Amino acid sequence: MKFKDPREVDQICFELRLGDYPRALNRTRINELLNGWPPYTEEEVQENGIEINVNSLEGTRIAHDARSQFYSAFLKPGNYFKCTTDSGPVHKRQKYNTTFTKLINRPMKRSLDYFECFRSRFALNVAHGIGPAAWPNQDAWCPDAKGIEDVLIPGNTLLTMKNLPFFALYRSYTAPELIRLTRGAAKLDPAWNMPLVNACLEWVDQETKALMGNNWPEVWAPEKASERVKGDGGFYAGDQVPTIDTFDFYFLDLDCEDPGWRRRIILDSWSTPAGPPKSPTMSRKSEKVYTDGKNQFLYNSEDRLFARKREELVSFQFADLSAVAPFRYHSVRSLGFLMYAVCHIQNRLRCKFNEAVFEALMMYFRVKSMEDVQRGLKLNLINKGFIDETMQFVPAADRFQVNAALVELGLKENAALINDNSSSYTQNQNYSSGGVEKTKFQVMAETSSINSLISAGLTQAYQYQAFEYREIIRRFCNPKSSDHDVKAFRAGCIKDGMPEKLLVPEAWDAEPERVMGAGNKTMEMAIAEWLMANREKYDPDPQREILRNVTMSVTDDPQLADRLVPETPQVSNSIHDAQLSVGSLMAGVDVQIKSGVNRVETIQALLIAMATIVQKLMQAGGMATAEQIAGLQNVGKHIDDNIKSLAMDPTMKQQVKIFGDQLGNVMNMVKGFQQRLEEQMKAQAAAAQNGAGGIDPAAQAKIAADAATAQSKIELGKESHAQKTAQRAISFEQKTAQDAERNAADLAQKQQQHALDMQKQAAEAALDLERQKQEQAAAAKEKPKE
């Protein structure tokens, strides 16, 4: 069917809306329960005299916990998904994968719109089991979350959408939005019906003038209405301003040379109710623009292909708990649907229970007349009070008694039903039973059982999300896209050396990033503990990945995990020093073991370097010189010394055994080199003996070996002597400098002491002179005059 008549599309959309109306009523009840609305309606409260009408928020808490599971599963990882390719040179694919994944996830992680799209879909998944999203145009990579009521799907449609012939999206455009779609810098899409677009804008303009109470100057021509809308866009985006409501209709056309999805847009002329008399908002049923619009398309792609696959138009995420197969779109059963009845009855039971509690707190009196009632109302029994004989209290035994045990049993039973049926989406673990703390094995067993249910639900969500990620990759690979993020992504890939021929969606696949424990923190930490306990059993690359995942699980911070354990490993100081020491060890130099280094990294680097040298010798014919053999033996001894140092840590027992086995394998190959060298020397000695007679081959081989050993010792002695000479020279220089400093200090001290002595002597001489003067003066006074 080609849908060339707008009235056909209008009729189908109206039937889809009517068919969805009963389902919409059920969704409304679920929404009200989860949003905390009271369980009784206003009519029920008035008719039954209900005093307590509150929501206990058990359903709200369950929905919040369930959304938290989805948040942790999808939003916690550093990337939304990983991209892999099987194209290009094999040795460059890892680099391409890292670059593509990093650059495509960067704008996605920074996008608030995409984050809110996820939040909306998680909420819809929990409440109704379906989380739809649609792309606003053919270039934008970020989809917009849609309400289930705005996605109209025919009945009996399978979840796979295999039998989906058409569907409609309900869209409401403001006047500025419609102007941007139909008038802009980009080339105008000829599928837009511009006369009808202009009529819609003119109608919005007229309604806005009436609502705002403004009178535009009469000199403004009607054709300038769109310019006025663009200039005063704020007036046309308010709550009271009418929107242009449409059905965005898509259908699958297979009877043509270019099969795919075609697009039609019609105005919604059914949904707006008539306003009160003299209301500025008129019924759209009576508006000319809407009545005439029934016979016109607002947008008509005709036979032009709009999309090849349904995934290019709308994306769905499902959390279906239905038990009946084959699974259909309108048969999805969500957590909110399954929990509605028991949560609703629990709310009503709690309301009745609280009414009974309030009733039990009341004091009842027996009265014989209304006069007794009036006297009873005047009683003050707060501290002391008196009543006459006509007033009699009604004792508890004579009043209606609530069966407290039955009420408590009912509340517990309902709570158990809620807990049992929501445990697959929540983390309400009880780590004690009867006052006794559960063992680690019991907690792990219960958590594992719950995790199996969580994994089943999240695996479904992950799988459907992968289709959306692949469509996002396709949009990011579009070279003609007008989206800013897409342009920046392509430029970044080319700048990092990725060939432009790889920037095609066919070359890439997407796998959602999954967290350990499927979003359950308890299970996540249990898995992390087990992985760390068995980490040494894995190869070095998986060990690094384990450490990275465990770091993210403990911290819940992907940025911190990326800083502490980068995805691309950095060369540490221990590895760098170990690699530099290989040359000295191969030359026969004795390298001292430095304290404070990472022994594991040092041993790994040395083993890799030693194995590389051995492999090159094997590729060169399996022979090695005496100097090379001596160097490898020196490297092996140094590795063995580091292993012995590592063995002092009892927690590294398993790692020490692994390193010892690896070193033993390499040293066996070194022994093979030595044996082959001895055999070669024996053969050469035998040939020399046969040619110029004399010496036994074994003796000649021993002589040659001794000569090589002696030469090696001489070389080592020379190097050792040179090192000792250098050390003695340094020690002599240091001693000379220290003696010079000490002599200078002694000389300065002696000079200072001498100056002090001179000052002392001068002071004493001055005192003696003064004393002599005083004595002479005294003697002169005592001498008698002649």
Could you describe the 3D structure shown?
The protein is of the alpha+beta class and 786 residues long. Among the domains are: 448-541, no CATH class; 573-723. The chain has 22 helices and 14 strands. The strands form five sheets. A five-stranded antiparallel sheet has the order 4-5-6-7-8. A hairpin with a 6-residue loop joins strand 6 (244-253) and strand 7 (260-267). The longest helix is centred in the C-terminal third of the chain and has 86 residues, at 697-782. The chain is extended, with a radius of gyration of 45 Å. It starts with 5 loop residues before the first helix and ends with a helix.
Task: Quickly list its features.
five-stranded antiparallel beta sheet; 786 residues; extended; 22 helices; 14 strands; alpha+beta; three-stranded antiparallel beta sheet; single chain
Helix proportion range: 55-70%
Spatial sequence of strands, sheet with the most strands: 4-5-6-7-8
Radius of gyration: 45 Å
CA-based shape: extended
* Low-confidence residue ranges: 215-223, 273-286, 427-433, 449-453
Strand content: 5-15%
Largest sheet: 5 strands, antiparallel
Summed over residues and divided by their number, the pLDDT gives a mean of: 78
Number of strands: 14
State the helix count: 22
Structural class: alpha+beta
How far apart are the termini? 165 Å
